[in-house]
Amino acid sequence: MSHVPSVVVLVLAALLGCDRESYSRTFADSEVAQSPRASPAGNGASAEGSPAAPPTVDMPSTSMLARTVTLEFESTTGASLTDRIASTLRAHGGVVVGRSVRREGASSIGELEVRVPDARLDAALGALRGVAPPTREEQVAEDLTNEFIDSEARLRTGTLLETRLLALAERGGTVKDLGEVEAQLARVRTANEALVVRQRVLENRVRFATVHVRVTAPFLAARRLESTLRWRVEHALSEGSDNAKSVLATLVYVGVTTAPLHVPVLMALGVWVAVRRRRRRQIARTTAAA
Prior knowledge:
Elements: H1 4-16, H2 20-34, E1 65-74, H3 79-91, E2 95-104, E3 107-117, H4 121-131, E4 136-143, H5 145-171, H6 175-207, E5 208-218, H7 219-226, H8 229-257, H9 259-289
Parallel strand pairs: 1-5
Antiparallel strand pairs: 1-4, 2-3, 3-5
């Protein structure tokens, strides 16, 4: 396991986030220093073959922009306009991930947070302007290109490191050496999995734009709308559906968490029933014999 010390060099390089050139040079120097059969030509390669250089990272063809839109509306219908806005965004592939209503002074504030496919964002905004002209509109684009490239480079370096650690583990060695390799391998895999999750989050932010909607209406107008029979029925159905889902989720959770207790309880209940039946039979026989 003469290669185990090089594992430490690899892990330190990956964790410190060094660039690929310095990482490759450090690893090569470590291999040459430890190999007794280093090439006399001084080319930096061991007799077993020099390690492969980390692969290059492909640059994205376009900038990765995460767009965020903030829209503010003023209305006299309160929740009615909020519902129409939500329906318009849903028609363009949007998903409502947050909704709230609160009172501020004499006004009722309704807020929406919707994720809309970036490719359909412009069309969705145009449709919203047809529903009601916004009093304020703001668009912000965050460039995530560099962050994505950095995570991609770290992931490829970590994948190469994981491959080399697996090769070292397959060569065998003492229990201590294998334990060290396995520990390093577990840390590298955990870091790689975190990078994969981070990449998916970045891609999702680019693929779906975030739209924040704020609707301000006079509180009395909102109260008049809420007093209608239709609104009450829809509100009651919505709350009932949410409560039913919550109760069902609670019952499933309780059933799963208490499953280990069901078996002994059922067994005890079965024994009790059997004993009761046996006593009844004995009493019946005694009575018949008498």
